[in-house]
Design brief:
The chain has 403 residues and is α/β, with parallel strands linked by helices. The protein has 18 helices and 13 strands. The chain has two domains: 286 residues, NAD(P)-binding Rossmann-like Domain (Rossmann fold, 3-Layer(aba) Sandwich), CATH 3.40.50.720; 99 residues, 3-Layer(aba) Sandwich (Oxidized Rhodanese, domain 1). It has an eight-stranded mixed beta sheet with strand order 3-2-1-4-5-6-7-8, sandwiched between helices. It has a five-stranded parallel beta sheet with strand order 9-13-12-10-11. α6 packs parallel to α7.
Length: 403
């Protein structure tokens, strides 16, 4: 870790702000286990109360981040989110409860944080975090914590933090794996672009909604991010500057990797080529991918109501489900034949090119890919079910579970 990091980190809070901090007797009691630690003391707790921390996202990572920072006594928590609570969130997003389903996540988060610590000021930014508002949102805060799961926002949060010289505490999770580091070129460490100069092709890296995540995993990684924030605010310990910690939950194993600054980084190098915020959706190829998907998606399609009519009429066609077996176990459309997309090229012999074939998946995306595979193999009578089994559950059979 660069020798300058601790003193630079400890200077996050101005002396003027620290001088304005006072504690009630109730607060002294609340934070007593902090105050008796020689590394913290009253001075460190003052820094926490004076600190302004922005958490982007109030989902899996944002939940433990916000809860523990509030409990620790961070004075002001800014929260950025635009989503509402869904049943599928409750397995890991512990800021929210069953009664919050359908509520704005920020409102649920605010109420839970107030219950944990009414001394914390909660500032809500109920909006998409985009290039046109990022500077205004980030500027008033001392530390930024990225709790998101998409590449455009990660690059955006990185760049604005580099430009404004704010530490950016990064975390990511997928299935059983997570990782955490601190990006802060102004403290001597690398930035996100030093690690990932270019985003992966759209769709290559599945999101948690597509690939799943162990419910307790974000608790581990989010708490690590919260710890890094506390250390930076108080100027103690060794922040994860130039170090990335990877956690494998299945093996209960932590590994550390060294990260180095890229001397040619387009954002944090001595001669940057990117000096202002850009269109991050464009940078990550999302509009191009959407256009290509729309073009590629120009395939024959039927909606679920038409599928139901044809099933009820016992019309002669083959309904193929291209999801994975474990998805088929959760929910299925009666009469479907399971051939996972990845196995389809090797199982073409199970289908007859003379038959009319209707394909479905969870949302219609994978089945559109399957349709193209079959079309290239010489199959002609093909249909894709728009919206997949999710649309079936919404419009035809509510007893079919959604996942």
């Amino acid at each position: 870790m660069p020798a300058s990091a601790p003193s630079a980190a400890s200077g996050l809070i101005s002396a003027e702000r620290l001088d304005s901090i006072h504690f009630s007797n109730d607060e002294i009691a609340r934070y007593s286990r902090h105050l008796i630690m020689p590394e913290v003391t009253l001075e460190g707790q003052k820094k926490l109360k004076a600190a302004r921390v922005l958490c982007i996202g109030t989902g899996g990572l944002g939940s433990p981040i916000a809860l523990y920072l509030a409990a620790a006594g961070v004075g002001t928590l800014g929260l950025v989110d635009f989503d509402v609570v869904d049943f599928s969130n409750l397995q890991r997003q512990i800021l929210h409860g069953t009664s919050d389903v359908g509520r704005a996540k920020l409102h649920s988060a605010r109420d839970r944080i107030r219950e944990v610590n009414p001394n914390v000021q909660v500032e809500l930014h109920e909006t998409l975090f985009k290039s046109d508002n990022a500077r205004e949102i980030v500027a008033p805060y001392d530390v930024v914590i990225d709790g998101t799961d998409n590449f455009p926002t990660r690059y955006l949060s990185n760049d604005i933090c580099v430009f404004l010289k704010k530490p950016n505490i990064y975390g990511s999770i997928f299935r059983f794996d997570g990782q955490c580091t601190v990006f802060a070129p102004h403290l001597g460490g690398p930035c996100y672009r030093c690690m990932f100069p270019e985003p992966p092709p759209p769709g290559l890296v599945p999101s948690c909604a597509e690939g799943g995540v162990l419910g307790v995993l974000p608790g581990i990684i989010g708490v690590m991010q919260a710890i890094e924030a506390v250390k930076l605010i108080m100027g103690i310990g060794e922040p994860l500057l130039g170090r990335l910690v990877h956690f494998d939950a299945l093996k209960m194993r932590f590994r550390e990797f060294k990260l180095r600054r890229d001397p040619n980084c387009p954002v944090c190098s001595a001669n940057p080529t990117i000096t202002d915020l850009i269109d991050y959706d464009q940078f990550c190829g999302l509009p191009q991918a959407a256009a290509e998907e729309a073009k590629a998606g120009e395939v024959p399609a039927i909606n679920v109501r038409e599928l139901k009519r044809r099933l009820d009429a016992r019309e002669n066609f083959v309904l193929v489900d291209v999801r994975e077996p474990f998805e088929h176990d959760i929910a299925r459309i009666p009469g479907s034949k399971l051939i996972p997309l990845g196995e389809l090229p090797g199982r073409l012999s199970e289908l007859d090119s003379a038959d009319e074939i209707v394909l479905h998946c969870k949302s219609g995306r994978r089945s559109a890919q399957a349709l193209r595979v079959l079309k290239e193999a010489g199959f002609a009578r093909l249909w894709n079910v728009s919206g997949g089994i999710e649309a079936w559950a919404d419009q035809i059979d509510p007893s079919v579970p959604k996942y």
